[in-house]
Write a structure and sequence with these properties.
Elements: E1 12-14, H1 17-30, E2 34-39, H2 50-60, E3 67-72, H3 75-80, H4 84-91, E4 96-100, H5 104-107, E5 112-116, E6 121-124, E7 132-135, H6 139-155, E8 157-158
Parallel strand pairs: 2-3, 3-4
Antiparallel strand pairs: 1-7, 2-5, 4-8, 5-6, 6-7
Helix pairs in contact: 1-2
Length: about 170
């Protein structure tokens, strides 16, 4: 997929929905096999465009070592709304892992992040606003975000309502 070009290194300030969508698509395009996403809520305007869906499908089918982890506060709402990301995750359940935070410290967190295996990140202190920071390759800045993601992941439970039933 052809994603918008952005600088390889350095810091990008995200301050509009258009910039947010562009940065998100670029980070997906930069991902090789592992992707980590944390969202309080899955709204219809994120991870649902045809280009984003194509990149997510590419990552999920990248072969050995492909892994996508999603921390989602409201999985039932995403399922009820029929979000395209959930449909994709259900078609590839061995690659996608979705968990829901249960601890108050994690549920009170309103931030969102996207982390890839190439050192790229997108961090929004408040997921409801398109204001944050991103970088395509900055492992040093990604480390604390990844640590927080991993800690939250360990305290979270599987989003059972999103599991498909093969009868």
């Amino acid at each position: 997929m052809n994603a918008p070009a952005a600088p390889d290194d350095g810091f990008t300030l995200v301050d509009t929905r258009a910039t947010l969508a562009e940065v998100r698509l670029q980070l997906l395009a930069d991902t090789r096999r592992q992707l980590f996403i944390q969202l309080p809520r899955l709204t219809p305007d994120i991870y649902a465009s045809p280009l984003e869906q194509a990149e997510l499908r590419r990552i999920a089918t990248a072969g050995r070592g492909a892994e996508i982890r999603l921390l989602l506060h409201e999985p039932a709402a995403a399922l009820r709304d029929g979000h395209r990301l959930i449909a994709l995750a259900q078609r590839l359940p061995s690659i996608w892992q979705i968990r829901t935070p249960v601890e108050p410290v994690d549920l009170d967190c309103a931030s969102a992040c996207l982390l890839n295996d190439n050192g790229g990140y997108l961090f929004l202190p408040n997921a409801e606003r398109p204001q944050g920071r991103a970088s395509r390759r900055d492992r040093a800045a990604q480390i604390p975000l990844r640590q927080r993601f991993d800690e939250t992941w360990e305290r979270s439970i599987r989003a059972r309502e999103l599991q498909t039933l093969d009868l």
